[in-house]
Design a protein that fits this description.
It comes from Flectobacillus rivi. The chain is an alpha/beta fold and 200 residues long. It is built from 5 helices and 7 strands, in the order E-E-H-E-E-H-E-H-E-H-E-H. Strands 1-3-4-2-5-6-7 form a 7-stranded mixed sheet, with helices on both faces. Helix 3 links the parallel strand 5 and strand 6. The chain is globular and about 40 Å long. Guanosine-5'-triphosphate (GTP) binds next to helix 1.
């Protein structure tokens, strides 16, 4: 799929305020600083469409981007960020949980995981919860440019081993880099395929 148009639409703090749920939607989620906003920019090939930052906790709302005048990409706040207060964290969790479970046009959630790190409990449990709620997701390993291919493959094997403790098979996954565009075409092809099957 070629990207012919990409624009920022709106930011909201509740799923009820989001745009009309009549187009296929894909959400990017994961720990703070994992590279959600950067990956969105890399996918649409626009440097500053989604705001990125070296400081975790940059994205704080549900951000809708309209792509090819046909589907939505959504940038969500990161979870598991220790430096926000408990009250603040619970507020984010409620916002994200409601969005994920009640947004009717959400076709697939992309769970981003930094390929450099060993499996983190918060990510594994988050995917567990998606599964329990029957919410489709796939894994996007980020920052692959920071490791050698050998190291990437080694970490993928470790991740698969952990996932197979709770899942019958390894969920669909992509290996990406926002720096060199690795995985971009594969994600777009996957979205294209899902778009074809979307019924509002
Ligand atoms: P929050 O909105 O705070 O939750 O963060 P985020 O997940 O949106 O991360 P963001 O895209 O802002 O990126 C965080 C940092 O990681 C930035 O300094 C990015 O430049 C860097 N980064 C993101 N993706 C990549 C990548 O693929 N490769 C490399 N080398 N750096 C990356
Ligand atoms: Mg962000």
């Amino acid at each position: 799929m070629k990207i012919t148009q990409a624009s920022f639409l709106m930011s909201n703090s509740t799923y009820q305020q989001c745009p009309k749920a009549d187009k296929p939607e894909y959400a990017f989620i994961g720990r703070s600083n994992v590279g959600k906003s950067s990956l969105i920019n890399s996918i649409v090939r626009k440097k500053n469409l989604a705001k990125t930052s070296q400081t975790p906790g940059k994205t704080q709302l549900i951000n809708h981007f309209f792509i090819n005048e046909d589907w939505y990409l959504v940038d969500l706040p990161g979870y598991g960020y220790a430096k926000v207060s408990k009250v603040e964290r619970e507020k984010f969790e409620k916002m994200i949980n409601e969005y994920l479970t009640l947004r009717t046009n959400l076709v697939c959630t992309f769970v981003l995981i930094d390929v450099r790190h060993e499996p983190q409990k918060v990510d594994v449990e988050f995917m567990q919860k998606l599964g329990e709620n029957g919410l489709p997701f796939c894994i996007v390993f980020t920052k692959a440019d920071k490791l050698s291919n050998t190291a990437v493959n080694k970490n993928l094997a470790i991740y698969e081993q952990i996932m197979l403790e709770t899942w019958e098979e390894m969920p669909q996954y992509f290996v990406t880099s926002s720096v060199n565009g690795t995985g971009r075409e594969e994600i777009l092809a996957y979205i294209d395929e899902l778009n074809q099957g979307f019924k509002p």
